Amino acid sequence: MRMKKSLTASMLAAALLGTSLTGLPSGMGGLSGGPEYASAAGDSGAKLPSRVFLERMNELHKALAAGDPVDVQDVRNLRDEIAALDVDANLKLLDPVWNKISTKLPDHVDEPELKRTLFRIVKSVGSFRYDPEASDLEEIRTNPEYRAALKTIAAAGGNPDIVMDDFLVFLFGDGAGRKGVEGTIASELAGMSSLELLGLLGSNEGITNVLLQATDKLLAKKGDYAFVDILSGLGVTAKDIRSLVLNFQVKLQKDVPAIRAMTVAYLRTASEAVAAVSEDGREHRYSLRVAGVAVPQIALVWSKVSGDSIVTVSSKGVVSIPSSAQKASAVIRASLQNPYGGSPKVIFEQEVTLKAVGDGEEGEVFPVEAFLERMNKLRDALLAGDPADIDAVRSFRDEWTKLSFSKDGKLLDPLWKRVKPNLPKTVDEAKLKRDLFDILVAVGSFRYDPKASDLEEIRSNPEFRAALKTLAAAGGVSNVTMDDFLILLFGDGKERGGLEGEMLESVSKMKPSELALLLRNKNKLSALVADSLAGIMEEEEEYPLAKALADLGVRPVDMRQTAKSFQSKFKHDEEAALAMAIAYIRSEAEAAVKVTDYGRQHQYSLSFQGIELPDHALQWSKVSGDKELSVSSNGRVTIPKGTASATALIQAAVSNPSGKGGKVVFQQEVTLVNEQEEDQTAQKIAALLQALDGKLAKIEVRLASSKTDIQKVSLLLDTAREGNHAARELLKLNAGAQQKEEALAQIKTKVNATITKIIKSLLEF
Prior knowledge:
Elements: H1 5-22, H2 50-65, H3 69-83, H4 95-102, H5 111-127, H6 135-142, H7 144-156, H8 164-172, H9 180-190, H10 194-201, H11 204-219, H12 226-234, H13 238-251, H14 255-270, E1 271-277, E2 283-290, E3 293-294, E4 300-307, E5 312-313, E6 318-320, E7 327-336, E8 345-355, H15 368-383, H16 387-401, H17 405-408, H18 413-419, H19 429-446, H20 452-460, H21 462-474, H22 482-490, H23 498-508, H24 512-520, H25 522-536, H26 544-551, H27 556-569, H28 573-588, E9 590-596, E10 601-608, E11 611-612, E12 618-625, E13 630-631, E14 636-638, E15 645-655, E16 662-673, H29 682-705, H30 709-732, H31 737-762
């Protein structure tokens, strides 16, 4: 999670800019790096350095997706809210800037339609979706209607040659001398103290002010940006921009949670841990920096996620192992005390290893516990599915156990014919080949029925260990054990994924249509195994056993042929592979939902390894539940207008290559709530607001007597928590949408007033 300060700071800038100016966090438009975009024919002017822009946006998107699902939903809610804005009903939001533009337009221009197009541009930029192919962004950049509108406005401002990229350079810079609004925000953040940064995170107004200050500075730099020159020519001032931002903030109801979510995502990308290591190496004291700014320990909670049992982690960031221990590892995390209330937000997670000073290097160790946990999860997913799948896997396991060297030893020949000529004369070739065959049989049959005792028996088998040691030594590699072989197959639980990881990486690169075809075609699954085995053999530097085999003359094609040799012997391998693939999807599938029609409609989609499964590959249905709730085959779940709420168990199945029904890969209970069913709860809302007033008044009394910055920061967190608590209690009420909006606005006003007082007190010198 180490990143350069300038890059990470710019990511927060992009998040603030997107959420505050257009309503969309730029990270949700984060795109994977691809070829540089070129301006369309006839364009002139600035060109955005697309690859750099897309890479940093993609980084922020990944950080958001890796965090709290609530944060992801908050951003999606804002995106959907912007997309749903009615153009004609909200044109007045543009008036602070439009009133200046309209006075400069020629008489022949259709002003009402031009204004609508400008609003549609704002909507498009504010609601474009994450797309690895960058199609949404490219569509915006090349939209002929948008291009024509901008050229008309630009001509009125004195520069008819402006293109969409000039606007993007103004926002995000050109990667060279021009910082853009984003880079200017980064400079502002870099100069903050830790208390100022913490205060910023607890103040929605503070975040917006940073954006607007950066915009003010940029608008003063005439001649550097074509977009600034045009605004100047149109008479648009920094005050007009501020009014435009304020208009959208007042209109949008989902912007504040989205800004908070993207801010936390930024922190996750920008966090860097610093460890003070004790003399004996058995204690690490961790602190955290965000974009180079130290985070006060009082705002953090450290914890242990997983790892060796002898590793302890204190809430203050002290990680230690006993004096008797020589080496141990664990995954630790740091969570930020949520300035908006609720549970702490994880902003840093990393595996650390503590090693006593003077330790010698240890050999490879296969992560047994993590592997068994993963395999048991997969086995549970298998048992939860089609009984025919269980039978296929058991039949395939039985086929492995029935293999005998006397009859089937020749299956190893594609590999063995390369190894044999390079073995020393002292090696018992027949025994070595038999032992290698037995290793494959033992691991092949174990793979589908994981038991700790069986795995330990394989790892410690003296004949297996001796065979691998002999084979590796002949290839010029020492100290190879059964753990090296298991790591080659299943990975080390860290950077190396082994054969299993190679297969998953191949799947993650597939298009949705390719993944759907893989699940329908048994031959493609077999080919994936063979090709992945060949691919892993090319990574000699990562796997000692692969290097040894390569030095013995074994080529990737030989491994592919060996895999196919064994596959030709089996009758149930393809059925078993498909069954395990379905089980894997069942254990890892993630659902996404788009809520519309006042909560009466949920549109579900399903993804695996980051790939959204195509609609035609899935069949959604209702398993049980309230009769008012309906489920269509394409994942649309609905309730009638007159129904307050309904709950049901829904499922998604992929088509079965055998044609005998679908294979269930996802099942979940869902509840749809009709947001239009409103009760009169004015008295409860009034009581809630009155209670909040009392709590905030007590905090301000405590502020008056606070003597240290730490006490004031604590009050800042308390204020945000009380506001969040009041908002949660409000949302529990069966109130109408307008009632909730008005009450939430009052809560925001009250909380922000107290937060402003605390921050002013913190900044007094």
